[in-house]
């Protein structure tokens, strides 16, 4: 049983919206309340801190258990304008951080594709951005974490400390305790504009060539790939960007322009519609090839312009599937995955392809490792979708790759263990009162 | 920061709406005095406001809901002094929701809600109005509620306290208009804050402390005496106020 400060709800779902579990939620406004919330459990209660729920699968869900929502813990604690080191409460969103940092000439060192992500969530999934090949993961920039454990202790974690809690908490999926606050280093910018260039590519070989050529001179690279193109060809659009060296420093207000008001009907996700969308996107991108200057927002956060876009996937929700495979296996494994998807006729709106650089991730369970990462979303069509994902699993496993837990809602415990060799080292750091749907699943399922 | 930065007094500075509003002032480089009864919380807020650019973010401890008339007058004088003799904007944000069913059976509980939300708040309003009148400038912003627009079974005691504030602030606005100072009552619909913890949230009726704060901040600069937050509540409440009793009484609102 959870204490009465936790309220029963079914309203809290993950971004993929595949399940709708009953959970007991508390949203503390103060760090000491947050720390108290994770100590107030009796023997069979479990708890999980969650941020803005932008993880797709079940890492941010704790069915029938307690959930501590951090988004009201959004205060700044300290900022050093000389070094860009900023200390903030864990529930602050990356968007709020940018609103503060940009006018002062700083930017996030690493940012995922949405700014509606909390600092705590960015650390707990050790998120990566379009600059992974240069900057590594978000965790590479974290200097200190304050962690509250269910036994009432509060720990200050720093990199290089030998007790391992720092490395376990970065990418620790919320299982090592509740991150109350964190200090990280922002990077200097001289303008909030970015110079972007879009280059169409006709196949994967071209993609890998452009990627290699770009990575020495462009800090940000990412590609969109058409998974409906003629069988496995892998045409797409490569975009690369850098911060402009002079100009205005202007943070843009809330990114949402329109919101999807309700769950879309299934027809929207039928194969012809998706196919047409992809073809159109490719043609439009091709027409816009070349260089331009834009605000940071459309480049880094294109999807944030549409509020609740996940509702487009209808009542059944969606599965994301993000893998990384080592460099040598990249071209072949990627081509094979695209072939499987085309054969199944289940492609996604937006498939994203990127190469990760060699900078090691600091977390024991961090997802990024050097190689090729492919992220796909699939409308949940039940068995046929799961069967396709299982076929992709085989390719990833054979290539020596791994899946991203933040995006996952169904990988087997076996695949998880195969992909994360430091799991045994991680496990002793798990707080005995902390758990999640993901954790219970990969611990028990084959 | 320049001497032209605003001086702002916030009563109930640890409220979620007040804190979000204070951040907007901080970004402008304002000088803030934060009043509340929990030092630890106010210190956390003050530190945040300073990082965000507040020229000053000071703290005064006071059990705002539990005061004597003499202490109210004295505190307003002291706080005005601490802000350099002039208050540009003052926000009264503290309050309690209470529990209607409990207030119906336990009159002490009802009395406590009225004491905090109306009796004490009215004293602060009156004392501050005197200060603004003397300055011949400045704005008093008070947080009311749409619940004050029509009594309904589920929260009419809370609603009544907010209705009382509404009329009080209207009168003060009238009085201050003679000297060029202002008073505003902001009436939010439901907001996702600790006050509404445990309620079913989400959907078009709910707003965020940030959204309401933006309206509060604007209302302090310009506009009318009555401000709904967000604005759609103006129209919703218009309809609700004019619903005939025969229909209204059939609802379970
Ligand atoms: C449109 C979109 C684009 C995305 N692009 C990328 C991308 O480019 N790269 C990338 O890496 N990811 C990406 N993501 C995934 C997203 O960045 C991660 O899922 C992120 O962790 C979500 O943060 P959140 O605040 O929503 O946390 P949640 O999803 O609520 O939680 C995520 C995890 O963090 C834990 N957690 C949250 N707060 C705390 C805390 N205070 N203490 C301890 N644990 C905590 C939770 O327990 C959970 O395990 C994207 C997501 C979306 C929706
Ligand atoms: N939330 C809503 O849905 C909603 C809707 C319409 C109007 N409003 C009004 O908006 C205002 C702000 O509310 P909120 O939602 O921001 O609430 P909140 O975050 O719960 O804050 C309420 C504040 O009132 C303070 N307070 C209560 N009793 C007090 C007392 N006796 N002395 C001093 N301080 C006291 C609390 O301080 P402590 O921490 O010290 O208790 C707290 O800071 C209130 O007037 C409320 O009535 C709210």
Automatic annotation (TrEMBL), chain A:
* Top-level taxon in the UniProt lineage: Bacteria
Q: Which InterPro entries does its entry note?
A: FAD-bd_PCMH (IPR016166), FAD-bd_PCMH-like_sf (IPR036318), FAD-bd_PCMH_sub2 (IPR016169), FAD_lactone_oxidase-like (IPR010031), Oxid_FAD_bind_N (IPR006094)
Q: Which residues form the FAD-binding PCMH-type domain?
A: 17-189
Task: Select a single GO molecular function from the record's annotations and give it.
Answer: oxidoreductase activity, acting on the CH-OH group of donors, oxygen as acceptor
**Keyword Flavoprotein in annotation:** yes
Which protein is depicted? FAD-binding oxidoreductase
User: Is the Transcription keyword given for this protein?
Assistant: no
In which organism is this protein found? Acidisoma silvae
Swiss-Prot/TrEMBL keywords: FAD, Flavoprotein
Q: Which PROSITE patterns match?
A: FAD_PCMH
SUPFAM superfamilies named among the record's database cross-references? FAD-binding/transporter-associated domain-like (SSF56176)
